[in-house]
Amino acid sequence: MGIIYNHVTKTFHLQASDTSYVMQLVRSGYLAHLYWGKKIRSANGSRRFQFFDRPFSPNPDPSDRAFSLDTLPQEYPAYGNTDFRAPAYQVQLENGSTISDLRYKTHRIYKGKPKLEGLPATYVENENEAETLEIVLEDRVIGLNVTLLYTVYERWNVITRSARFENHGAERIKLLRALSMNVDFPHSDYEWLHLPGAWARERAVERRPLVTGIQSVESRRGASSHQQNPFIALLRKHANEDVGEVYGFSLVYSGNFLAQVEVDQFQTTRVSMGINPFDFTWLLEPGESFQTPEVVMVYSDKGLNGMSQTYHQLYRTRLARGAFRDRERPILINNWEATYFHFNEEKILHLAKTAAELGIELFVLDDGWFGKRDNDRSSLGDWFVNKQKLPNGLEGLAKSINQMGMQFGLWVEPEMVSVDSELYRKHPDWCLHVPNRPRSEGRNQLVLDYSRKEVCDYIIQVISDVLASAPISYVKWDMNRHMTEIGSAALPPERQRETAHRYMLGLYRVMEEITSRFPHVLFESCSGGGGRFDPGMLYYMPQTWTSDNTDAVSRLKIQYGTSLVYPISAMGAHVSAVPNHQVHRITSLEMRGHVAMSGNFGYELDLTKLSEEEKQKVKEQVAFYKEIRRLVQFGTFYRILSPFEGNEAAWMFVSEDRSEALVAYFRVLVEANAPLSFIRLKGLDPNKDYEIIGSGEVYGGDELMHAGLNVPQRRGDFISVIWRLKAAH
């Protein structure tokens, strides 16, 4: 690993674990991209830049018709100086013009990785884990400096990128576009992959060839969203799960984003990512700076599984933080689908007692415990206990549950306010809104204006008071509507389009403060399920409720797609009642358990209504998951069969020393007189023998991976099988 600058060739060579990234300064200080891929020993110019006259590609130097920015692969391009492709940034000056010209000024290389002011980002635990390159580009005419930050990790094929704008001029500069990164690839022979979806069907996997023009995914919702995820990948043709080159791009941000790929007239490919320029500006006064979020770029020559495993390891150990980063997560019961808003203390304690008898470790009280919250039409913002439902308060309830041998957790939605609430009646200007326009509601609620310091201070205080009032060890932090009428009563007209990003900075401040005050609490992020399942949230909360859809068949696709980027330890997965409340499908308790055990395991149903046979099955599931959870939550994950490509799904978990594995297979619909099925396992030690626990059968790791393992023939729809393997001695 290392970052090398060659003073003679003016070349930067960044080397991570097994990848190289090469840039070069050309002509009068333009920073150009040469190579990104498999690690090379040195960059001596075997594929140097080629310049020749391209008609209708203008020339910044009139004496040289061969040189144009329109054909130069650039690191952080502008628009208007002969490059007609989409720019990485754009500014507007006080005279109304939007032309700028960044040239190399200086650079520095140092060990470690800096924090990004006010933003989540990956980190290092000691400076020898990574090296960072800062390249300062300057527009001397207007006094604009842009510092490009590159960090390479020693252990992983990872390069992180971001940009910092600084106004050293005498006039104000307005940022119209400030993306975090840009990479220009020399050809377009790629397919691109992204993770679209909707509420209750998040993170599907879509893959298609690149075409000439712009293809993009974005969010304009004020959140990363159910509809798109801040992630894309480019894949070489014929790359699959296990072989082929893959380039991944993941934005550590939870708000409006843009991920864009442009294929130009010469079949070169430009990839850019960052804060969505739509409805965004940022005013830089003289002396002020602006930091963009981080993009984590991963290279894999071992297919999608190689890319995913890199993201999993990095995000689990160098993005997630706190006491629960490396700790096994508790098995929980959430009362939401058991009671919805209709509960009292007696009903909750009855449910908790049943859960404790079955070995469940954590009881989570969901929506409805505060204010006058008997439905979703009131009381958000009124964070005080409803004593009619809970006469002994949160403290009394929590202590009663603790006495049963379980921890106590709580649902909150601190970013929202109900129109019918004491908070809104007292502070009607504390929500996002614009003058003289109606305030659109979603789920009968408005969005608090987290761009305002006094709003953030209030939330920090009231939520801290709640968490300090009782022995609470888990918090589910929800957010159930996206932004409309995005404006702030506290910002002047020229800064109104900063509101959405200022909201995110306020939210990150609130989360940083509260999670720091309560380090013993396990925080889980939620936004109508998976509507804000992004790296920005994982920095503050090490797990996310994967989807409000708990149907086992639906979850095969949701959890499979989520695993492209996010570690298993980040995925909340629960067993719910049947018919399922979202799709009304009836699946077996066994399959529901096997799917949910493929994440952070829990239940979301009325345990008191189960038969004795069902309760015994739950007890067995709980006991089994306690045996395998470290393997599931922290093992190496391999996808085997994709539910997006057929009627089956399969995946597996392998321990770090490859002495233990868990394999899960699922079939959705039965087929009459069907072909026989087998699956080839992955990640085992070919030189070890493995016993299939419970069967007494022993097979070589090489045999299981190459010859495969038979799937037992079972009748009926919605079938699942789990095999547990241990190295034989």
Automatic annotation (TrEMBL):
It is an enzyme of class 3 (hydrolase). Residues 648-725 form the Glycosyl hydrolase family 36 C-terminal domain. InterPro entries: Aldolase_TIM (IPR013785), Alpga-gal_N_sf (IPR038417), Alpha-glycosidase_related (IPR050985), GH (IPR017853), Glyco_hydro_27/36_CS (IPR000111), Glyco_hydro_36 (IPR002252), Glyco_hydro_36_C (IPR031705), Glyco_hydro_36_N (IPR031704). It comes from the Bacteria. CDD domains: GH36 (cd14791). Coiled coil: none annotated. Residues 29-285 form the Glycosyl hydrolase family 36 N-terminal domain. The active site is at residues 478, 548. GO terms for biological process: carbohydrate catabolic process. Keywords: Glycosidase, Hydrolase. Substrate binds at residues 199, 366-367, 443, 476-480, 526, 548. It catalyses: Hydrolysis of terminal, non-reducing alpha-D-galactose residues in alpha-D-galactosides, including galactose oligosaccharides, galactomannans and galactolipids. It holds the Pfam family Glyco_hydro_36N. Belongs to the glycosyl hydrolase 36 family. This is Alpha-galactosidase. It comes from Parageobacillus caldoxylosilyticus NBRC 107762.
